[in-house]
């Protein structure tokens, strides 16, 4: 059984009705980097980035990150 980390950024953004452009402006992260996170192609995320996303989206890290088991 393998495990994987899933980023739920797209779901949280949809719930908050926030666009990628707006989130990029609020957090100070390029749209390209946010897109990489959103599509699950990122290999890592800095805690400072995670904190900034949580503050901008008014959520907790567990809302953005999920452990999946295959």
From TrEMBL:
It comes from the Bacteria. Pfam families: HTH_26 (PF13443). Residues 15-64 form the HTH cro/C1-type domain. InterPro entries: Cro/C1-type_HTH, Lambda_DNA-bd_dom_sf. One of its GO terms (molecular function) is DNA binding. PANTHER family: DNA-BINDING PROTEIN (PTHR37301:SF1), DNA-BINDING PROTEIN-RELATED (PTHR37301). This is Transcriptional regulator. It comes from Alteromonas alba.
